[in-house]
Specification:
The complex is a heterodimer of chains A (402) and B (631). Chain A is an alpha/beta fold and 402 residues long. Chain A has helices at residues 3-17, 40-59, 79-91, 104-117, 147-160, 174-190, 209-219, 231-242, 259-262, 286-299, 305-324, 329-336, 390-396, and strands at 28-34, 68-74, 97-100, 121-123, 140-142, 165-169, 195-200, 223-226, 250-257, 274-277, 340-343, 346-349, 361-369, 372-381. Chain B has 631 residues and is mainly alpha-helical. Chain B has helices spanning 2-32, 39-57, 61-85, 97-117, 143-165, 167-177, 179-184, 189-210, 221-236, 241-261, 268-280, 309-328, 331-356, 365-382, 386-408, 413-433, 435-438, 456-478, 481-491, 493-498, 503-529, 539-552, 559-574, 580-594, 598-611, 626-630, and strands at residues 122-123, 133-136, 139-142, 216-217, 444-445, 531-532. Classes of the chains: A alpha/beta (402), B mainly alpha (631).
Chain lengths: 402, 631
């Protein structure tokens, strides 16, 4: 422990010794933990979105008469570190809740932490289904539409096509497996006569694209459901185009339409894939226009999905504090249950049933315009339409999940 | 038919790319004995330089290939900088010490690339004139892959010419055989080393640049390629270029066809191949056994002595301070110190293996993670109570170490180290991909201590008791007959064998003991965080342990504790800066240059003699066993 720490500890002790000094205008501190250096292409837009929301909220007078303040930590992509910083944020920085995280495993570690320590965690971006189901607890809520919800949106589109023989390709780890299971389950329910002819499981970020493309081609499927992303996707698209894998096939891509993944592909973005994503350039609703203009004015950059989620996350937190009328954890938990507020994608609700928000996603078809991949013929899908039935959710969630 | 032929050719193309990336590592190791962990960073730099230069030089075919070559040269210049500024100063330090410097370089390069090129993946430019396909039995085959198939053997040929037909190459080969003799004959060794390091860096850069038309440049490439190039280098035989080529072909073809047969087996297959080959041929396909003079030095050149009276007082004071800490500090500091205690035990177990056993493990996190998973699986599937699960955690780490050690102790030196790395990757891949049992990347959650121990303060005391007990046990073993026997094995295998010590069994026992202690640390870790994820077994985790041990210094038994504290504290202090990785990297490099004996070693060197930190120093120093290794 360095001198600075000791001094910090002393200062903390002093401030604890003199309670009630905190004035009405003292900021409400919100802990923010994310993998800022491990996946900066996703997490920096997230923080920008969050900063924008905080700025707007504070310009309107803050919450409960107090401004909001974001205290950020970089978890280095390691769950163990994230848990340590969570403790630091609550104890040293006196945050009222923590939010953030992108990687599912980091999000799940924070979920377990929140449940054990009875502290509030708003999982902003992690997608793992189990975060609000099998591993869900009273103190954890999630904003972004989960793997299941987005896979169900694509399965619905898949059922509308003529494709009968389906193959899947997904990174060989938890997210990829969840995404394939959910897709198969929903598609089979919607269209019982489909056939799944094969699955490919490249190692995450280590795809041998040429070999995978050959293996998929050998299966002779009518449609292919892709879950790969990042550099794996870039390689798959290149090899697939060259080796004519995509010709005359129905192609689905989970998250492929998100600017984070589509934009690096430039003019080589795949065309005609049915994808989930975020067509920020084309959305024309008053709430999104306001968000887009403010974002571009502040950062001189366009928003990514991360920006949208970060922005909405801070709106949710502000709404919950407002509703609770306090920053006390139990009051905030009760406030989050059934919380409704307006966001940049329209009104969303945090379901009391499983603590999942009803924020949806955009489903459309990819095309290349002016040397860039875009989504066309898209529509916004509300999150609440792509959940399993309430009975199923209840069986998935532990009894003490509150 | 056509499908299989095309599949085979695709495998050859991958092999070429892999060979380029790996050959540099092999060459650098063969001559300078530096295991360059920053090789992946040079590979990544090659991709980024290539991307920028191709765009700068325009679209023509000539411009494209010139750009790739220039990227390679640019990476060579970075290598020159690293070698002359950092590594050259460390050739006299214990060999493994250069590892730390290369860790520092990894961190610095990561932040520098992020700063210069930004966060977004950069899609690689296509090769002009080679964007199309040809049809082989009606199956499309990209032209660029055919070009790649040619590039690999061309580079191999060029390297062969360089090493067999030029004076410089012949000198380099001579230095590989016997560096002292080459030096004695009046050849400027450091110039030779610099040249080899630059050549190796250029090959890594070229490897990163030529894969651009098949993929992209991204910030995860450095660690992404590392395991593969290590496997290729080891399977081929350290220092053998032709061996690296053969290994690259073997591994790439195995991957390519493995996908057709066993889609889930990607990742694991390569490591299984490596284990099989090393068990049959311990030095790889074309490697030669390490000559005696080249035995990997761990730098334990002084006899470790039992604690002197003042040192005992010092330890008692530290323990008293730790016991009283909860009265004085807030609960976050306690959490931080708990983390340090866990890591200190983990690092001490590796330190035992390295300094007392003379066995360098690059994959020690396998047993740390093994213990964590043993505890977590027991809790998840057998509802085992906290106390029992924590006690069984070392059993998990130890059992895993028994299996891994059985293979590894057949080898020695750097082959041993590399094989431990490979097995750690196997363990990681299994945990990462076998989600039916381990829950894969989503980890095992809810691994909390029993109610009585779940408070921060109580758990802090539990961690303190367990970590202190573990560290004292390790220390006790060092000075037990077993520890002395192990040291004899380390210092002179022949003499140890002559007096009746079963060397392999001795080493295996040390390996299992170190694994068990790492497992205990892992068990503590699981309960302190409430969850376990595959990251705890990953390569960076093993590197953390090495870093802590080497930062603390190999020669003093308290080194790993100092190293763990310094490591955690450094991270915690610097993390709030935007470019914290750059700062940590610079701090590591600075520490290496300033304290080539490690922090603990430096403290002992400066204070030890005056403060009587050891029992009766001096008398035994004349018979420093490290000298024998060079005889």
């Amino acid at each position: 422990m360095g001198m600075r720490k000791l001094l910090g500890t002393a200062a903390l002790a002093l401030s604890l010794a003199a309670p009630g000094v905190a004035g009405a205008a003292d900021p409400i501190r919100i802990g923010d933990i994310n993998s800022y250096k491990t996946l900066p292409a996703h997490t920096l837009p997230y923080r920008q979105g969050a900063e924008l929301a905080i700025e707007q909220i504070n310009a309107d007078g803050g919450v409960l008469g107090r401004p909001l303040e974001l205290v950020s930590r970089d978890d280095q992509g390691k769950p163990g570190e994230a848990v340590r910083y969570a403790e630091e944020l609550f104890v040293k920085e006196e945050v009222v809740l923590i939010s953030g995280s992108l990687f599912s495993h980091v999000g799940l570690a924070l979920t377990a932490y929140a449940g054990q320590k009875k502290r509030l965690y708003l999982a902003a971006e992690p997608l793992a289904d189990s975060l609000v189901w099998q591993d869900g607890n009273r103190y954890t809520f999630r904003l972004r539409p989960s793997t299941y919800m987005q896979a169900a949106m694509l399965a619905e589109e898949a059922a509308k096509t003529d494709a009968k023989r389906w193959a899947t390709i997904a990174p060989n780890y938890a997210y990829g497996k969840d995404a394939v299971i959910a897709f198969k389950e929903v598609l089979k329910a919607l269209k019982p006569d489909v056939e799944f002819v094969g699955e490919q499981w490249p190692a995450l970020f280590k795809i041998d694209a040429a070999a995978e493309v050959q293996a998929l081609e050998a299966l002779k499927p009518d449609g292919i459901y892709n879950v790969t992303f990042g550099s794996d996707l870039a390689k798959l698209v290149r090899e697939g185009n060259l080796r004519e894998l995509f010709d005359d096939r129905t192609m689905l891509g989970l998250l492929t339409g998100e600017p984070e993944y589509l934009d690096p592909l430039g003019a080589e973005a795949p065309e005609g894939w049915i994808v989930t994503g975020y067509p920020w350039y084309d959305i024309d609703t008053p709430e999104h226009n306001a968000f887009l203009e403010a974002y571009q004015a502040k950062f001189d950059d366009y928003p990514r999905v991360g920006s949208l989620v970060g922005y909405n996350a801070m709106l949710s937190i502000a709404a919950a504090i407002e509703k609770a009328g306090s920053t006390e954890t139990e009051a905030l938990v009760e406030a989050f249950k059934g919380l409704e507020h307006d966001s940049a994608v329209g009104p969303i609700t945090y379901r009391a049933l499983d603590h999942q928000s009803t924020m949806g996603a955009y489903v459309g078809v990819t095309a290349v315009k002016d040397g860039k991949g875009v989504m066309v013929d898209w529509s916004y899908r509300k999150g609440e339409d792509y959940m399993p039935s309430d009975e199923v959710v209840k069986t998935l969630r532990p009894a003490e999940g509150g | 038919m056509g499908v299989y032929l095309v599949q085979f050719l695709s495998g050859l193309a991958s092999a070429s790319a892999l060979f380029l990336a790996a050959s540099g590592l092999s060459i650098i190791f063969g001559v300078t004995r530096v295991v360059n962990f920053a090789h992946g960073s040079f590979y990544m730099l090659g991709a980024y330089f290539g991307y920028s230069l191709v765009h700068r030089l325009g679209g023509g075919a000539i411009g494209f290939w010139v750009a790739l070559l220039l990227a390679s040269v640019a990476v060579g210049l970075v290598g020159l900088l690293v070698e002359t500024v950092i590594l050259r100063r460390l050739y006299k330090a214990p060999e493994l010490f250069q590892l730390i410097a290369t860790f520092g370089v990894i961190l610095i390069v990561q932040d520098a690339v992020f700063w210069a090129w930004g966060a977004e993946n950069l899609l690689g430019p296509r090769a002009p004139g080679l964007t199309g396909i040809v049809r082989i039995f009606d199956v499309p085959m990209p032209l660029y892959e055919l070009a790649l198939i040619a590039i690999g053997p061309l580079v191999l040929l060029a390297l062969w010419m360089l090493f067999n037909r030029t004076r410089w190459g012949i000198l380099v080969r001579a230095a590989t055989e016997d560096r002292e003799m080459v030096g004695a004959l009046g050849v400027n060794q450091s110039l030779l080393f610099t040249g080899v390091f630059v050549l190796g860096s250029m090959l890594a850069g070229l490897g990163g640049a030529v894969q651009l038309p098949k993929g992209d440049a991204n910030l995860l490439m450095d660690f992404g390629i590392l395991a593969e190039v290590f496997v290729v280098t080891v399977v081929g035989g350290m220092g053998s270029i032709l061996g690296a080529f053969l290994a690259a072909v073997l591994i790439s073809e195995l991957n390519t066809f493995g996908i057709l047969v066993w889609p889930n087996g990607t990742l694991v297959l390569m490591f299984i191949l490596m284990a099989v080959i090393l068990v049959i041929r311990p030095t790889g396909l074309l490697g030669r056994p390490e000559t005696i003079g080249h035995k990997t030095e761990t730098g334990a050149s002084q006899v470790v002595l039992p604690a002197g009276p003042h040192y005992k007082i010092f330890v008692a004071l530290v323990l008293a301070a730790l016991l009283l800490a909860p009265l004085a500090v807030d609960s976050f500091i306690l959490v931080l110190v708990t983390d340090i205690l866990v890591l200190a035990l983990f690092a001490t177990s590796l330190h035992f293996l390295m300094s007392t056993g003379g066995l360098v493990s690059f994959g020690h996190a396998a047993f740390y993670g093994g213990g964590a998973y043993a505890a977590a699986l027991l809790v998840t599937y057998a509802a085992t109570p906290f106390e029992l699960a924590l006690l069984l955690a070392p059993l998990g780490g130890g059992l895993l170490a028994l299996v891994v050690g059985w293979f590894c102790v057949r080898l020695s030196g750097v082959y041993f180290a590399m094989l431990t790395l490979a097995f750690a990757q196997v363990a990681w891949s299994i945990v990462f991909q076998w989600s039916e049992v381990t829950n894969g990347d989503d980890g095992l959650l809810g691994i909390w201590p029993a109610a009585w121990a779940s408070g921060t303060v109580v758990f802090y005391y539990v961690a303190l008791a367990v970590a202190a007990a573990g560290i004292f046990l390790i220390r006790r073993v060092v000075f037990a007959p077993f520890g002395y026997g192990l040291r004899a094995t380390r210092d002179s295998m022949l003499r140890a064998a002559a007096i009746g010590i079963d060397i392999k069994r001795q080493q295996l026992a040390a390996f299992v003991f170190a694994g068990a202690m790492a497992g205990l640390a892992g068990g503590l870790f699981a309960f302190s965080k409430g969850s376990v994820f595959p990251d705890e077994m990953s390569i960076p985790r093993s590197f953390d342990a090495l870093l802590m041990v080497l930062l603390g210094g190999l020669q003093s038994l308290s080194g790993p504790v100092v190293g763990a504290a310094a490591f955690t504290w450094l991270h915690d202090e610097l993390i709030s800066f935007e470019y914290w990785r750059l700062l940590v990297g610079l701090a590591i490099v600075a520490l290496v240059l300033l304290f080539p004996q490690g922090l603990g070693g430096a403290a002992r060197h400066h204070l030890g003699r005056h403060l009587k930190l050891e029992a009766s120093p001096g008398t035994l120093q004349g018979t420093a066993p490290g000298k024998e290794q060079q005889a």
